[in-house]
Amino acid sequence: MAPRLNCFSDSGARMSFIEIIGKVALGQAVAEVKEKLKTKKYNDQVDAVFNQTLSAFDRIIFLCQKSDDFGREIFNLAEGKSARIDRLFEAAAAYADNPDIQGVEPYLTPSKIQGELREFSHRLLDGFRQVGSAKLGELPQAFNKFDRDINSYSVVDKTPEEKPQGPPPVYLPRMKNTLLQHHEEWIEKIAATLGQEGRAAVGQETVERAAEGLGAAVSGQGGIGKTAMANEYAHAHVADYPGGVFWLQIDLGLAQALREAAQKLGWDIPDSLDDKQVQEMVLAEIRGRSGLKLLILDNLEDQVVPTEANLPGSHLLVTTRRTDVDLPRVKMDLPLENEALDIFLGYAELDRGGISEAEELAAREICDRVGNLPLALEILGKVARKRGLAQTALRLDDIISEKASVHGKGEVLSIGAALALAEGQYGHPRALEALR
Fold it and tell me: Nearest Cα to 336, choosing from 363, 371, 383, 365?
């Protein structure tokens, strides 16, 4: 008979073989639980780093949403599996020319996608290193392999095919003003500013620029001639813009201004499109035109120029009454006395050499009464064609005296008085509406 096996516990108590086996099994179970907890913690860290990193990459999220295949490969990383780089690029190819979702840069070319994925892989590794004391060898193998694969993968962007183009599209709703006087100086300044900066704002006052490399804006009080100068520049330099000239009435809103320009150019814009879709469609069409383009934003009312209007390969010209738009300015001043006289007489279709001293005195009085404001001079010059200089001066003096107590002074009074005088010779309601 085999001897009975006797064992002792730590306390010296006698233990049976069954009890020993049970204790060993319990120890193994505890070790397995600990290992599972450790693995769970590790997996939780991987998930947390993956989700936090992914949230910072709009383009990758966009492609995950658009392509199930792309999303599947990306989310394999979170499960510790390898991601097939070739499948990622195959899945992304269908969206390589898709303009964008809001906040995502358009045209997802292979090189841009690779750059995005490289940065994503670097941040995955850096993020996991920061959550604990993990060393390089303890990093998730899937993260490591993805980083190696995406950095060694070779991509080539396709050369965009140039679409055959007819004459450049030109939308300028205002005709060239053949009666405009003393405009050459401003046209030259606009051209010089756009040539140096690419963007410009024309105005009466100037402010210190907050940044270099912006453009220019025509800005200043109402009636000083901002729109007239922008229009004259566009007509004079249309040949310099083989990509097209696009006048956008920006106070309507960018989408509506783009819709109006596109419709006038004969582009097919479905009525079912909402503002965002119209904006994307028309801007993509303008962006696709080869050659330098000119975008004119007339009557900007906000301080900030819409970023969507800053297209590559284009000049941006802005007219605005604001003085705080951060663009280089073409500083417009009110015309001098003799310049104002020439402007007024030009619209009256008269010449200084062909009028009497009394008529010249009346003309100068008209200019002085409206503060030499170009818009008022234009309206009054056309009125004087029928009324004559002396009668126009007398009637204007009466109207300003009547309106001064209500409108005070300045551009509102000048333009208001000119309009009131002009209304007397326009009886048709539509003519009055157009005049206003």
Answer: 371
